[in-house]
Amino acid sequence: MNLNPRQRSILDAVRSQVTISVEELAQQLAVTPQTVRRDVKQMEEARLLARYHGGVGLPSSVENIDYSQRQVMNIAAKRRIAAAVAARVRPGSSLLINIGTTTEEVARALRHHTGLHVVTNNLNVATIMAGQPSCEVIVAGGVVRGRDRGIVGEATVEFIRQFRVDIGIIGVSSIEPDGTLRDFDSREVKVAQAIIEQSREIWLVADQDKFVRQALVRLAHLSEMDRLFCDAEPPAALRALLEEARVEVVVAP
Questions:
Q1: Backbone φ and ψ of 136, nearest 5°
Q2: How many of the other CB atoms lie within 10 Å of CB of 111?
Q3: Relative to the CA of 170, which of 7, 75, 117, 138 has its CA 20 to 30 Å away?
Q4: Sign of the CA dihedral 228, 233, 238, 241?
Q5: Does residue 128 sit in helix, strand or coil?
Q6: Residue 82 burial by Cβ neighbours in a 10 Å radius (0-12, 13-18, 19+)
Q7: Paired strand residues for 52
Q8: Domain ranges across the chain
Q9: Which tens digits make up the pLDDT trace of 184-214?
Q10: End-to-end distance of the chain based on CA atoms, in angstroms?
């Protein structure tokens, strides 16, 4: 869902207080409890919030949103991000691309590039890019997750370590206020970490909802990225961190 300013304020309040009552939210925002409940219901359906006894909190950090839901969530923003990435990828580049619905949109945006060499642990990315005859697509071995066609496991990590590419393009599930990048599956995280190690540049693709989500497993830190592609300016605290680490921020128009 595309959040309005009031809904973003609700997320900020919940994140700062862990749990908060509907009445407190209504008082803070100067709206009726009914308005807050309506917003919370929509945000709960999008798995951005969860209702608990006595209040509203963040959803579980253990389980990701279903893949079919993630495919359509913020799709316009993901396509804008993908277009911004594609505009900066030079023909003939070598790429490592990981699992994620945003990275899949990047693959779609790259379909008309020529001479690319793409290594991926995402069967969806491989399928999208295999239709471009001038691109070489290399698929990692390992265990295929049926729910999203991602490939994970120790065999995948070892396979990725054979390559050294120009750009690693990665997506994540969560960017915390201190810059920690997190995801849900430790096996997926290990593959993403291998991609970071084997890439001369690391480009992170993330829509703005990643700034308000929580996930379980640490993947890396924002300061380790070379570029962040997003659909909106990062929060102020993160912006300062990005500037200090000299991470280029590309806000998709």
A1: -95, 125
A2: 13
A3: 7
A4: positive
A5: helix
A6: buried
A7: 55
A8: 5-57, 67-251
A9: 888 899 999 999 999 999 999 999 888 877 7
A10: 18
Question: DSSP for 39-75?
Answer: HHHHHHHTTS-EEETTEEEPPPSSSPPPHHHHHHTTH
3-state DSSP call for residue 247? coil
Separation between Cα atoms, residue 28 and residue 109, nearest integer Å: 42
115 pLDDT more than 70: yes
What is the 3 state secondary structure string of 183-233?
ECCHHHHHHHHHHHHCEEEEEEECCHHHHHCCCCEEEEEHHHCCEEEECCC
In the predicted model, is pLDDT for residue 62 greater than 70?
Answer: no
Residue with tokens 């619905």: 101
- Return the half-sphere exposure (C-beta side, CA atoms, 13 A cut-off) of residue 56: 28
Its CATH architecture, for the domain 5-57, is: Orthogonal Bundle (1.10)
Round to whole Å and give the CA distance between 74 and 68: 13
User: Mean pLDDT of all residues in the chain?
Assistant: 89
Residue 151, classified by CB atoms within 10 Å of its CB into exposed (0-12), middle (13-18) or buried (19+), is buried
Q: Residue 155: enclosing H or E segment and its boundaries?
A: helix 154-160
What are 50's two structure tokens? 């969860």
Instruction: Please give the DSSP secondary-structure letter assigned to residue 222.
Output: G
Q: Residue holding tokens 């030079």?
A: 90
| CB-neighbour burial class of residue 61 (10 A; exposed 0-12, middle 13-18, buried 19+) | middle
Instruction: Identify the CA nearest to 192 among candidates 85, 64, 70, 99.
Output: 99
What is the reported pLDDT for 58?
Answer: 72
CB 138 within 8 Å of CB 162: no
CATH class of the domain whose range is 67-251: alpha beta
* Global pTM value: 0.76
Tens of pLDDT, residues 129-143 = 998 888 999 999 999
